[in-house]
Design brief:
Elements: E1 4-5, H1 16-26, H2 38-58, E2 65-68, H3 71-85, E3 90-95, H4 100-111, E4 115-120, H5 130-136, E5 141-145, H6 159-166, E6 172-176, H7 188-191, E7 195-199, E8 210-214, H8 240-253, H9 263-285, E9 289-291, E10 302-307, H10 312-321, E11 324-325, H11 341-345, H12 350-353, E12 356-360, H13 367-388
Parallel strand pairs: 1-11, 3-4, 3-5, 5-6, 6-7
Antiparallel strand pairs: 2-8, 7-8, 9-10, 10-12
Helix pairs in contact: 1-8, 2-8, 3-4, 9-13
Length: 389
């Protein structure tokens, strides 16, 4: 039985071009990039090439690109590093639908008495209103952290509007752009951000690499102390192969990269068309279903459906047995048996929140796979509902 993968928001396969770029750094280019000899400098050259690619993608300088072990570390460095660099209690504004790697540091800082945090609401479609951010700002607000696109329901936030709101204020603006990177403009100047997070394995790169863009002049205390790598922001010998791979992955989604002009746009249009077909057919053919989040302000690959009367976890398990890989939400929180904080923030009831499944498409998804997934999904929901009667 051929498996159908519809969980690209959790992780994507490593692109063949990315793997090819990585291979020398897993074999012959094994030197420590901090070493001054030939072997070390060959490894260093690979890192710096990747840094330049990411910098061009973000429209920043290479020195503003800091490689991390992934998005969780980057988000923690942005939030905790900023707070720890100050010697006073500060105020943070974030949203109720952020990823756990933003919410958990904020909650920990609250417990430690180092920060007061305002969690701004979203509307019924899962979108943060710029006015809500403005209302939440206080005299001692030092940081605003809003994700670019939600990892569960795919809703796109008005980042450039919020950036314009914060312009000329002494407030840092951090954006988790992990899910947005391959679909939306991540030009940090256009967005008006001071800190921005990327993740390699969401864009067909390897796991174990991420980026935090740190605008020149922004002061952060490092979370890791040691050799002072990454301009002192992140000590520890760099994961050279994964960084090189991330650089190539970014190049593939970049309008300035190695892909033919327009290929990324065409690819994203194809994904959106398949997504629209999936949404339309599921809502038409299965009664008691509802799309979570905005249909318009939504990533082109995200489908998040609530199935009345069915546990989302049970549906995901049975679909897996039938060869369809989906999830119930963010991979980092999927093992918990609690209703999604994102759906609760939309005003969805706990029972309805537990009935949801997320299907996310990628560049390798085909029309045949989508049609087969629809057929299996329709039959599976009918089967589970019948079993509950």
């Amino acid at each position: 039985m051929k498996k159908i993968y519809l969980d690209y928001a959790a992780s994507s396969p490593v692109d063949k071009k990315v793997l090819r770029e990585m291979m020398p750094y897993l074999k012959k280019e094994f030197g420590n990039p901090s070493s001054v000899h030939y072997f070390g400098q060959r490894a260093r050259a690979g890192i710096e090439k990747a840094r330049q690619i990411v910098a061009k993608f973000l429209n920043c300088t290479p020195l503003e690109v800091v490689f991390t072990s992934g998005a969780t570390e980057a988000n923690n460095l942005a939030i905790r590093g900023m707070v720890q660099s100050l010697k006073q209690k500060i105020h943070i504004v974030t949203s109720q639908i952020e990823h756990e790697s933003v919410l958990s540091p904020c909650q920990e800082l609250e417990r430690q008495g180092l920060a007061e945090v305002t969690y701004v609401p979203v509307d019924s479609e899962g979108v943060v209103k710029t006015e809500e951010v403005q209302k939440a700002i206080k005299e001692n607000t030092a940081l605003v952290s809003i994700m670019y696109a939600n990892s569960e329901i795919g809703t796109i936030q008005p980042i450039a509007e919020i950036g314009a709101l914060l312009k000329d204020r002494k407030i840092l603006f951090h954006v988790d752009a992990v899910q947005a990177a391959q679909f939306l403009d991540c030009d940090v100047k256009k967005l008006g951000v001071d800190l921005l997070t990327l993740s390699s394995h969401k864009i067909y790169g390897p796991k174990g690499a991420g980026v935090l863009y740190i605008k020149e002049g922004v002061v952060l205390n490092p979370l890791l102390l040691g050799g002072g790598q990454e301009q002192g922001f992140r000590s520890g010998t760099e994961n050279v192969a994964s960084i090189v791979g991330m650089g190539r992955a970014v190049e593939e989604i970049s309008p300035y990269g190695g892909s033919p002009a327009g290929r990324q746009i065409v690819q994203n249009i194809k994904i959106r068309q398949l997504r629209d077909k999936l949404i339309k057919e599921v809502l038409r053919r299965i009664e008691g279903t509802q799309l979570s989040g905005s249909k318009q302000k939504r990533l082109p690959n995200n489908v998040h459906i609530r199935f009345q009367g069915i546990a989302g976890s049970e549906l995901a398990t049975v679909l897996d047995q039938k060869g369809i890989a989906v999830s119930t939400g963010s991979a980092c929180s999927e093992k918990t048996q609690e209703p999604s904080h994102v759906l609760l923030a939309l005003g969805v009831s706990e029972d309805d929140a537990m009935s949801s499944v997320r299907l996310t498409l990628g560049k390798d998804t085909t029309l045949q796979e989508v049609e087969k997934a629809i057929t299996i999904l329709v039959a599976t929901v009918a089967q589970l509902r019948k079993n509950r009667v």
